Amino acid sequence: MSWGWFARKRVLLLVLTGFIALLFLKSDWMGRMMYPIAYMQSIETEASINDVDPYLIAAIIRVESNFKTDKVSSKGAGGVMQLMPETADWIIEMAKFDAATTRETVVGSAELSIKAGSWYVHALHDQFKGNSVAAVAAYNAGPGKVRQWMRDKVWDGTMEHLDQVPYGETRHYVQRVDYYYKKYKSLYPEWSRYV
Questions:
Q1: CATH code of the domain in which 121 resides
Q2: d(Cα 176, Cα 188) in Å, to the nearest integer?
Q3: Residues 101 and 161 in one domain
């Protein structure tokens, strides 16, 4: 065999490798495979009802449970939105869920967890006057703790000064939610009408 044959094969292999790399790097379908959103209809419905950003709800779910309904944290939070039992009880009462709704049904049902969690995200947005960064931090650390940080001027509630948040877990949590929020926004433009 001649060297020309090997050269042609090498060029063909390079072109094929480049094409496959381009598919992986620039393809929305590949991105959607890597960053899927489960329960899209429930997220869309509850985000619309509660006037919250569906990308934010999806990002919180991704960080909290990776869309797994049976996940329970070491602190006792459960469901796809990882609500603490006391928080679930408070949401059920404040949001006036029907009498048959219990913390167990909220934790056990992805749809009810998304309904309760979306209501809670809306309530946090209201508490923090539309500040999404502070609301996300409060979803993780609790609204009382975040209000204290802001009141004591430990943190100003911005992404730019996130390094001032005293809890490493909360800093990392907000960064991860922000990462998935941006990723979902770029991969799922059909929700942009809700933002």
A1: 1.10.530.10
A2: 18
A3: yes
Q: Are 49 and 182 in contact (CB under 8 A)?
A: no
The C-alpha atoms of residue 134 and residue 150 are separated, in whole angstroms, by 9
- What type of residue sits at position 154? V
Task: Assess whether 111 and 86 both reside in one domain.
Answer: yes
- Mean pLDDT to the nearest integer, 165-173: 98
* pLDDT tens profile 44-70: 999 999 999 999 999 999 999 999 988
Average pLDDT of span 153-177: 98
Containing structural domain, residue 155: 35-194
The C-alpha angle with vertex 191 and arms to 78 and 158, in degrees rounded to 5, equals: 65
Same domain, 12 and 62: no
The residues facing 83 across adjacent strands are: 78
Residue 82 sits in the same domain as residue 103: yes
Q: Is 66 exposed, middle or buried (0-12, 13-18, 19+ CB in 10 A)?
A: exposed
